[in-house]
Amino acid sequence: DQDNNDHMVYWLSNTSALLFLLQSSLKTPGSSAAHKPPAPSTSFFSRMTQSFRSSSANLPVGIVRQVEAKYPALLFKQQLTAYVEKIFGIIRDNLKKELSPLISSCIQVPRTSKGTAFKTSEESESDSSPDPASHWQSIIECLNGTLCRLKENSVPPILIQKIFTQSFAYINVQLFNSLLLRRECCTFGNGEYVKSGLAELELWCGQVKEEYAGSSWDELKHTRQAVGFLVIHQKSRITYDEITTDLCTVLSVQQLYRICTLYRDDNYNTQSVSPDVIASMKHLMTDDSEEDGSSFLLDDDLSIPFSIEDISGSMKVNEFQDVKPAAELMEIPAFQFLQE
């Protein structure tokens, strides 16, 4: 069931674990050419001893013995790698689908029937509409639910990191592009609202730590810097150099121009940057006049951001001594040894 992330996470754990074991058991072609082992002894005891030594040298549990990779094994490894990548992409895309309607509620600050951005205490008592902060909390709950699924199924931490970093990149694309496309979003008040939500996401990254969040917080740089510009006071005194070297270092000239020209202050009626700054941006954009008009928008990342080596390096040794065998297996006489 590709739409069910509970199922997909289970299979991501199993396929990545199998890929790890296969990677551990196959020698790289030509790796043993430079250091050939001595000729094995013909005695049965010597062969047994050599077998135990070679197997225990590869994995702590001593159950995998490296062998030369032949065509069928290499083909199976290639297909298994494709399965891991496909399942990873399904989980990531399913999470994006869950996040999409939640992000839509966080793009612009909700307004009450009276037209104000935030409710007063009296309005909150008489108004049954949700508090603006609840929209951001819904995103946090969605992230927590996905993290629990991944951890419960022992998915390798590197894959958990990549799922969240790409999901945060998706959040960044949706929020940032909305600021550059919708004038009603590019306001002082809306900047304050999005900034409060970004603080919630930063807190979440700190709570789950780098082991699972990875570089997720860095994926929000465009939105963070754009919001930083929206909420700063006295924009008319800021020079172009100050914007590009201090405030908005990752934003392009086209992106800065969009924000500065769309910006309006719905709280204090302050002005955007000075006409000189706008003129400087226009001058710098003349060289890019042949580019597509929407070149200032960000694109979603659909790549597969990990390798087999990344998975192998982050696999954890799990203890299964207290796990009861499946009842279906115990009904088969050949599996009676599991009870010992």
From TrEMBL:
Residues 1-287 form the Dilute domain. Pfam families: DIL (PF01843). The keyword Signal applies. Residues 114-134 are annotated as: Disordered. Keywords: Signal. InterPro entries: Dilute_dom (IPR002710), Vascular_dev_regulator (IPR052072). Residues 1-33 form the signal peptide. SMART domains: DIL. The keyword Ribosomal protein does not apply. PANTHER family: DILUTE DOMAIN-CONTAINING PROTEIN, DILUTE DOMAIN-CONTAINING PROTEIN YPR089W. This is Dilute domain-containing protein.
